[in-house]
Amino acid sequence: MSWIVTRTRQGKAMRATAQDQDAARLMGINVDRTISFTFALGGALAGAAGLLFQQTRGVTSYNLGYQLGLIAFTSAVMGGIGNLQGAVLGALLIGLIQGLNDGLPIGLGQQWSQTVVFSILILLMAFRPTGLLGKPVTEKV
Known about the structure:
Elements (H helix, E strand, L loop, with lengths): L1 H5 L2 H11 L1 H6 L4 H27 L8 H14 L4 H20 L9 H15 L14
Helix pairs in contact: 2-4, 5-6, 6-7
């Protein structure tokens, strides 16, 4: 789906708006319409994904995707905010940690998987606050 958006005029406007809104305005791009379209597209895709996920579960609940969202956010923080490769690495590490904790005889068991993952995240944030692949940000005064 993303290749369709990037090959169209709207996709180019989305990239231009994301890089520099003022320059996009000067080039004649309607920035407000582009942002609205992006949010509508994201909401539609999230709704479709939620519907498909609900169909595989068979039941619905108000907090159906809470745990998945929490794990996704944790993987982004673990890898480094704003770094796609870091988020993928964080997701891989979380999957490995949970799999090893659940499957190995020395693991704490499935009921403790979230606790183990978040404990490792807290230790990681204590020693590397920007994540595994994050870059330190300098603050200008």
